[in-house]
Amino acid sequence: SHLFFFLFNRYIQCMQALIKIALLALTLVLVFINPLSIGRVVYYSLFPLLFVLVWLFYLTSYVVSEKAVRKATTEPFSYSCFCALIPPVDDGDLIRGRLIITDKRLALFQKDAKKGGVKEVWSMDIAEVRHFTVGQLLSVRKGVTFLAEEREARFVGRRIAQDKEAITIALGWKQA
Length: 176
Fold this sequence. Notes:
Low-confidence stretches: none
Strand content: 25-35%
Largest sheet: 7 strands, antiparallel
Strand order of the largest sheet: 4-3-2-1-7-6-5
Radius of gyration: 20 Å
Structural class: alpha+beta
Mean pLDDT: 88
Number of helices: 5
Shape: globular
C-alpha cells in the first residue's frame, strides 16, 4: 500500500515535469515559429493541445480529491469542496485545496509537492465561527466568508458559493 502510494506520487511528479517541458516547448513553437513554415492547420491545431496541457498541469498540481484527504486524516467529514483560500493579507497566490467540515472544525488540505499526498494548511474550530456569508469576494469570483471573533477566512470556488445550505448543515446549525 505504501509502496504503491510512493510510486504513484513519483509518477505524478514525473508527469508534472514532462507537462512543464511540453508547455515550454509548445509555447516556444507558438511564439517563435512562423505559421507558414509548419502550415497554418498544424500551427493552429497546437493551441488546443496547449490548453489541454495547461489543464493537465492544473489538475496534477492543485486538485485535491476526497480520497486523498481521507488518507491524510482519520476525522470523518460531512462536507467537502475543492476551493481556494484567499490569503489573509491579500498578498500572494490563492491557496488551492479541499475544504472539509468535520464535527469540530473546518480544515483546508493542499497537495504536498515534496512528500506527495496532501497536508493540512489551515484550520478553524467550528466553535470560533460566529457566522458565514456568501457573496462576491474577488472581482469575478463568488465565495464564502467564515467570520470568527479574531479572524476571518475567505474561500472562493465554483461550487462553494452555491452550497450555503450544505455548509449550514455541516456546521450543525439550524440556519446560516
